[in-house]
Amino acid sequence: MAMHWLVQGCSYGDSLVFQFSGLGAQVPDDDGDELDGMDEALCPVDSFQQGPILDDEINEAIVRPLVHGVKLHAIVDACHSATVLDLPYQCTVSKQSGRWRWRDERPMTGACKGTTGGQAVLISGSSNGKSNICVQLPEPYATIGAMTHSFIRAVECEPRTTYGRLLTSMRAIMRDSSGNCNLQGPIGGSIRKVANFSGVEVTQLSSAYKFDVEREPFCM
C-alpha cells in the first residue's frame, strides 16, 4: 500500500524516494523473466506470515507507473537486492578497466520492466547472501545498516557529486568503516553503531535508462 501511495498521482517534476533497510531473499522465478532463474524479494516484518514482496510486484508498483519527468531513487540496504526493482540495466565496475559499465538485464521473454517515460534509479548492493539479523537491546541510541550509513555519509561529505563518485565514496566508506557511526545532524544524533546486517559487500546501481554515471549529477 505504501509503494502504491508513493507513486499515486505523480507528475512531471516530482522526485520520489523509496528506502528499505532490512532483510532480502531469493525465491524461484515462476514466470521465466529472470536470467538466473531467481526472483529477488524484500522481507518486511510480516513476511513469515504473508510472504516476501517479490521484485515483480515492486516493479509493477513503483517503476512502471513513473511518467515522463518523474524520477525515483530507491535506496535498498538488504542482501540479494542488486536487482530488486527488476530494472532493465545494471551498472557495475569492470574488473579489467576499473571503469563503470552497463549490463543489459532485460529478460529474454521480452517482458516490459521499464517505466512509462520516467526514470528509476536503484542504489543497492551485492552480498554474500549471509544476512546477520541485528538484535538491538533497549538503548537510547540505534543501529544503522552499513550500506545506509555509507550512503548518508557520502552525501554529507560531498552533497554535489556524480553517481559514479557517490558509489565510489560509498564503497570506500564501507571498506574503512570501523563500526562506529559518525553521521552529523538530526539523523546521526540518534545513531551510534553501524552493523552490516544485510551482508552487503559492494554497492551497485541499476536504472531504467543508461546514462553517463561519471558525468550525471546526483540529485534527489
Automatic annotation (TrEMBL):
A GO term from the CC aspect: cytoplasm
Highest taxon of source: Eukaryota
One GO biological process term: proteolysis
Recorded GO MF terms: cysteine-type endopeptidase activity
Pfam families (alphabetical): Peptidase_C14
Gene3D superfamilies to which the protein is assigned, alphabetical: 3.40.50.12660
Domain Peptidase C14 caspase, chain residue ranges per copy: 2-178
Family membership noted in the UniProt record: Belongs to the peptidase C14B family.
Protein name: Peptidase C14 caspase domain-containing protein
Naturally occurring in which organism (per UniProt): Aegilops tauschii subsp. strangulata
Taxonomic lineage from the root: Eukaryota, Viridiplantae, Streptophyta, Embryophyta, Tracheophyta
